[in-house]
Amino acid sequence: MEQPIYAGDVVDAICALLGQVPTNEIVTLAGPESVSREELIERAGNVIGKHPVTVSIPLIVGRLMCRILERFMASPPVTEDMIDLLDHDDNVDAKSAAKRIGIKLTTLDEMLTKVIVS
C-alpha cells in the first residue's frame, strides 16, 4: 500500500510545527488515502486520460535487476535500498496528525492533478 503526500502539505506541516512549542512527540505525516500501487498508477493515468497496464515482477527479480544496475552504473535509476523502502505497506492515520498540527491534507486526486498536469 502507498500513502503519498503532497509536497506542499509537507511544507505546510513544517511551517505549522515551527510555530509550536517544541516537544519530543514524533509526528508521522502521510497522505489522506492509502491505496495499492496498482490503484495509484491507474488513478495517475486517469488524470491524463490514459489506462496504464501494470505488471508486477517478483521481488527477487527486482532485487537482481537492481544489483546489476548498481554494479554497472554510477547512478542507477533504482537501487536495492529503494526497493527495500518501497517493500512495505503504508497505512498511517494521517488525518489525526494533520488535525493535531493544524493543516489540511490535499486529496490524492487533487495531488495527482497538480503534479502530473502542472
Q: Strands, helices and their partners?
A:
Elements (H helix, E strand, L loop, with lengths): L6 H12 L18 H11 L11 H14 L7 H7 L7 H8 L6 H10 L1
How is this structure best described in words?
By secondary structure, the chain is mainly alpha-helical. The protein has a domain at 1-34 and 89-118. Helices cover 53% and strands 0% of the residues. It has six helices and no strands. The chain has helices spanning 7-18, 37-47, 59-72, 80-86, 94-101, 108-117. The mean pLDDT is 93.
Features:
mainly alpha; 6 helices; globular
Our Rg estimate from Cα atoms comes to 17 Å
What's the rounded overall pLDDT mean?
93
Oligomer: single chain
Low-confidence stretches: none
Instruction: Supply the helix-strand structural class.
Output: mainly alpha
Element order: H for helix, E for strand: HHHHHH
The biggest sheet, with number of strands, parallel, antiparallel or mixed sense and barrel status, is: none
Q: Please count the beta strands (DSSP E, at least 2 residues each).
A: 0
* SS strand fraction: under 5%
Helical percent range?
40-55%
For the record, give the distance between the C-alpha atoms at the N and C termini, rounded to a whole number.
25 Å
Name the overall outline.
Answer: globular
Q: What is the tally of helical segments?
A: 6
